[in-house]
Automatic annotation (TrEMBL):
Species whose genome carries this gene: Inhella crocodyli
Domain 4Fe-4S Mo/W bis-MGD-type as annotated: residue spans: 5-61
An example molecular function term from Gene Ontology annotations: oxidoreductase activity
InterPro entries: Asp_de-COase-like_dom_sf, MoPterin_dinucl-bd_dom, Mopterin_OxRdtase, Mopterin_OxRdtase_4Fe-4S_dom, Prok_molybdopt-oxidoreductase
A GO cellular component annotation in the UniProt record: oxidoreductase complex
Any matching Pfam family: Molybdopterin
SUPFAM superfamilies assigned to the protein according to its UniProt record, in alphabetical order: ADC-like, Formate dehydrogenase/DMSO reductase, domains 1-3
Keywords: 4Fe-4S, Iron, Iron-sulfur, Metal-binding, Oxidoreductase
Keyword Hydrolase listed: no
Name of the protein described by the UniProt record: Molybdopterin oxidoreductase family protein
Any one GO biological process: cellular respiration
PROSITE patterns: 4FE4S_MOW_BIS_MGD (PS51669)
PANTHER family the record matches: NADPH-FE(3+) OXIDOREDUCTASE SUBUNIT ALPHA (PTHR43105:SF9), RESPIRATORY NITRATE REDUCTASE (PTHR43105)
Length: 739
């Protein structure tokens, strides 16, 4: 045994940095968790959340047995009984009301579980419902859409080449707390510091002086929601001052020039809350930097102009010649599951939008799903196609999506609900059946999602650290049996049999007929996601093509102690493109059509007080508040307020504020902070664990306020369907002490 790396290798399943961990165990206990020094990708980095994997594994509140609700109480049952209940109650709904009567919501942790990621789409297809929702429309859908329109595929998203850049402009992201998003980059804080130490420049645009802004050379405290104006003004300055040097293979430069021309810094400065001269200088700095990247994240996505922002970020990268350049914004080349490595290099069909529409509001489908803020109306509005049953997989929309009490009431109204989850929380308390996922330490993992967005190309696999309880199905087994169930097949059949049928279907769909049998044989007989990963790796850009060339396969990835390093990112244009024109589309018509709405917004009256969200290194959306290691310390669900705003509203540090919006009201303790832009309050999301029936004993001690109870269900970016989570108008008042 090697002394260098004791402990089982595990890819951390908690955030997008996907750090490699070493987990040391004794018997059934975790004794130590460290960063894996031998991981070529994360090089030993880890954050405090990783340590809490021990708490998560041991959490007495974690659901370990299937639960069925009888007379309002959850009772443990066998997996067969759980599925029998689903069969008895779900199938009649499907038969009587059709596929759209069953909705599915997939949540964030799905991307961290290979079993869920690989098998959920099969269940969704089998259900045949148009009512598929996910956290993407609370998050990154605008970036995926702008990338799809510009580069031809939903996952062709460029990421900053942070280790080689001289200038990084960050908008609406706080990677020092979030550890990076749509940008898989372990130890981003260390890398940002290194950027500055080598003489590079970091500029952060954020209404709050965040932990990332604290590290920066320059912080621009933009007004929430004004990113589009800032980005247009930056582009307008580049054109006006002759600073553009567009990348090759780019179409639409003139159209972009015309689009941004009406928005010079002097015209948008007031809307942005920034000096025109500062905006102008920023454009010059960006253009002058030998190697630079612009990066925008959730703060730029969850706005009315989320897709416009996401587009303009890459327009700036392209106009300044920094897109697809070392030290600029580069496209990863993932070893498996990357559509931008398949088919004809350099050209494709592009993407289709709006193939279906939502029943009530008529919102278009985007990337196969509908805006999650429409879930409640689909449940509560009577008529053909009304949602009567819901399946959730690792999703907590009751807290993570706008709506508060209204959404909660909609969930309570369902005829039937099944949750594949690990907790009884604000959402799953409404379920009739809860199917537990095994512990993260009991399942294998391949980093399929984040290798598409990684700062360096790598292929990593982790085996289960502990064996899974024999009578508890793995994520993919649940989904496989559910898929059989809704298709009216024998869901009790051995999983190997069920998986075989799906595998053959996939092979027949993706391979020329003469290869199906030999490839099938090479993949072996063990069912589950591993052989799908093997297939994807072997047919992927570094793959061995089943022996037809020298290359990688799953066995080789597994043989490397902490994964295979596939090298730094490299330029990929025009090979990566899948647009019909074979060009980078700098001026997609869907985005140009936003012109009039932008003009109207520039002239609109801004509210006096708005609320934005925030993340803390020790939190993770709505579901890690039950882990003692992370929950200890002060209440983190506080309302940050600039001292002037606090004084204006008669609120002192520690006082309870009543925060009211057009949609709801919450109470939260005030934390006075000069880091806030005046007129902007900040409350974290994911809290609000106080609901009846919630079984989260640690989280319930500090349940916190649900930010999303303040946010309207009706406001979204119409192009991507993504919710507006930022810059919502509120009023503040001190709570009147109870007498
Ligand atoms: N106001 C506001 N709202 C936001 C955001 C914001 O910034 N502001 N951020 C949004 C973003 S970016 C996201 S991604 C969403 C996240 O929102 P969701 O996608 O709803 O995800 P979480 O809140 O992380 O809840 C995860 C759920 O998965 C369960 N779970 C955890 N681990 C596992 C597992 O291994 N297996 C299974 N089966 N279940 C598991 C948890 O118990 C919980 O029910 O929230 C969004 N909501
Ligand atoms: N510790 C921790 N890490 C996480 C998560 C977590 O909950 N906790 N969640 C994970 C998930 S699901 C995601 S999607 C990522 C998100 O990762 P990030 O995108 O880095 O998310 P945030 O930290 O919320 O940073 C968003 C920033 O946008 C700012 N902002 C708000 N409104 C505006 C605006 O109108 N314009 C601009 N320019 N800025 C604005 C906010 O002040 C905030 O600082 O984090 C992931 N990592
Ligand atoms: S940064 Fe993210 S992936 Fe890395 S250890 Fe922390 S939670 Fe895990
Ligand atoms: Mo997210």
């Amino acid at each position: 045994m090697s002394d260098a790396a004791p402990g089982a290798f595990r890819i951390c399943p908690l955030c997008e940095a996907a750090c490699g961990l070493r987990i040391e165990t004794e018997g059934t206990q975790v004794v130590r968790i460290r960063g894996a020094e031998d991981d070529p990708f994360s090089r030993g980095y880890l954050c405090p959340k990783a340590i809490a994997l021990k708490d998560l594994h041991e959490d007495p509140d974690r659901v370990r047995q299937p639960l069925v609700k009888r007379n309002g109480r959850f009772e443990p049952v066998t997996w067969q009984e759980a599925l029998e209940t689903i069969e008895a109650r779900l199938l009649p709904i499907l038969r009587e009301h059709g596929p759209d009567a069953v909705a599915a919501v997939v949540g964030n942790p799905v991307v961290h579980r290979i079993g869920l990621l690989n098998y959920f789409p099969r269940l969704a297809r089998a259900l045949g419902t148009r009512n598929v929702f996910s956290a993407s429309t609370l998050d990154q859908m605008p970036k995926q859409l702008s990338s799809a329109l510009m580069f031809g595929h939903w996952l062709s998203v460029p990421v900053p080449d942070v280790d080689r850049t001289d200038f990084l402009l960050v908008l609406g992201a706080n990677p020092v707390a979030s550890n990076g998003s749509m940008w898989t980059v372990p130890d981003v804080k260390g890398r940002l510091k290194a950027l500055r130490e080598r003489g590079g420049r970091l500029v952060v645009v954020d209404p709050r002086r965040t932990e990332t802004a604290e590290l920066a050379d320059q912080h621009l405290a933009l007004k929430p929601g004004a990113d589009a104006f800032l980005l247009m003004a930056l582009a307008a300055t580049l054109f006006e001052e002759g600073l553009t040097r567009p990348i090759p293979h780019a179409a639409g430069v003139d159209a972009v020039r015309d689009f941004v021309a009406p928005y010079p810094p002097e015209r948008v400065a007031a809307a942005c809350g920034l000096d025109a001269a500062v905006i102008r200088q920023l454009a010059r700095d960006l253009a002058a930097a030998p190697r630079a990247a612009v990066y925008g994240r959730i703060g730029t996505c969850t706005q009315r102009f989320g897709t416009v922002n996401s587009w303009l970020v890459d327009v700036l990268n392209a106009l300044t010649g920094h897109l697809d350049r070392e030290g600029g914004a580069l496209f990863p080349k993932a070893p498996a599951f990357a559509a931008n490595t398949q088919g004809q290099p350099g050209q494709g069909k592009g993407v289709k939008l709006g193939r279906r529409r939502s029943r009530v509001s008529g919102a278009p489908e985007v990337y196969g799903e509908l805006p999650i803020t429409l879930l409640a109306e689909e449940i509560t509005t009577p008529g053909a196609g009304q949602v009567r049953a819901l399946f959730t997989a690792a999703a907590n929309p009751a807290l993570s999506a706008p709506g508060g009490a209204k959404l909660d009431a909609a969930l309570a109204q369902l005829d039937f609900m099944v949750s594949l989850d690990i907790y009884v929380n604000a959402t799953t308390r409404h379920a009739d059946v809860i199917l537990p996922s095994p512990s993260a330490l009991e399942v294998a993992h391949y980093d399929a999602a984040f290798s598409q967005l990684a700062h360096r190309n790598a292929a990593r696999w982790s085996e289960p650290v502990f064996p899974k309880a024999a009578d508890l199905p793995d994520d993919w087994e649940w989904l496989l049996r559910l898929t059989a169930l809704v298709q009216g097949q024998d869901w009790r059949a051995p999983v190997a049999e069920l998986d075989e049928a799906l595998l053959m279907e996939a092979l027949q769909h993706s391979l020329p007929a003469e290869f199906v049998a030999p490839v099938r044989q090479a993949l072996g007989d063990a069912p589950g996601p591993a052989r799908i990963v093997d297939l994807a790796l072997r047919l992927g850009p570094y793959g061995d093509q089943f022996g037809r060339r020298e290359g990688i396969n799953l066995a080789r990835v597994k043989a490397a102690p902490a994964g295979l390093d596939l090298g730094p990112l490299q330029p990929r244009l025009p090979e990566l493109l899948r647009t019909p024109s074979g060009q980078v589309e700098l001026a997609p018509p869907e985005l140009l059509a936003e012109g009039p709405a932008l003009e109207a917004a520039l002239n609109a009256q801004a509210p006096a007080m708005v609320v934005i969200g925030r993340r803390h290194l020790r939190n993770n959306n709505s579901w890690m508040h039950n882990l003692p290691t992370l929950a200890k310390g002060p209440d983190r669900c506080t309302l940050l307020l600039h001292p002037d705003d606090a004084a204006r509203h008669g609120l002192r540090d520690g006082a309870i504020a009543v925060v009211t919006s057009a949609s709801g009201e919450v109470r939260a303790p005030v934390e006075v902070s000069t880091a806030m832009r005046p007129g902007v309050a900040s409350l974290p999301h994911g809290f609000g664990h106080g609901g009846e029936g919630v079984q989260l004993r640690v989280a319930q001690r500090q349940p916190g306020a649900n930010l999303n109870a303040l946010l309207p269900m009706g406001d979204r970016d119409p192009l991507s369907g993504t919710a507006v989570l930022s810059g919502v108008a509120v009023t503040l008042a001190p709570a009147v002490a109870a007498t």
